[in-house]
Design goal:
Blueprint: E1 21-26, E2 29-34, E3 43-48, H1 55-66, H2 68-73, E4 76-82, H3 86-96, E5 102-105, H4 112-116, E6 132-137, E7 143-149, H5 157-165
Parallel strand pairs: 3-4, 4-5
Antiparallel strand pairs: 1-2, 1-5, 3-6, 6-7
């Protein structure tokens, strides 16, 4: 583990992104999101965020919705991931959405995907929630961008779009 509490075994830029299958809500409809289904098709922005019902998380997701055409122009989709339940995420999306992107629930087994990506808080404040982190996965399934943010910081959409422009 390094100083920020993130496991050194977490996938890094250049690694194949760990595959996963999670329940998700997209524009109010419950579906499954499978990362493997994106390979060979399009780029994916995995936006891990700590919890639903947070002001910072709401701002972050609203920015992704506002930039949906910019992501689509770069052959990319956004998947927002938290450890909250799908029912909690569905209720929250009804209040602050709808969103055209997947709002995925890593609730059960609790935080399994978040842990595999090395961004589950294993100790300290808010143990069991995720870090705020962005992973950009290209159409081949490789991680091309990875950054963990302070929990109160809204990641800049433009930073992610710059990465996508280079693909």
């Amino acid at each position: 583990m390094n100083l920020s509490g993130i496991e050194l075994s977490a996938p890094q830029v250049g690694d194949l992104a760990p595959d996963f299958d999670l329940p998700a809500v997209i524009a109010g409809v419950k579906k499954r999101f499978r990362l493997a289904e994106c390979r060979g098709q399009h780029n994916v922005v995995l936006a891990f965020y700590p919890l639903n019902w947070e002001t910072v998380s709401a701002k972050q997701l609203a920015q992704y919705q506002d930039a949906r055409e910019k992501f689509a122009a770069r052959n990319a989709s956004v998947v927002a991931i938290s450890v909250d339940s799908i029912m909690n995420s569905t209720a929250w999306e009804r209040e602050i959405g709808p969103f055209d992107f997947a709002l995925a629930s890593d609730f059960w087994p609790h935080g399994e995907v978040t842990r595999r990506y090395g961004v589950l808080r294993e100790s300290g404040p808010n143990t069991g929630s995720g870090e705020r982190a962005i992973f950009v996965v290209d159409h081949r399934g490789k991680i091309v961008f990875r950054r963990v943010y302070e929990s109160g910081v809204v990641p800049e959409v433009e930073e992610t779009l710059v990465t996508l422009r280079s693909l």
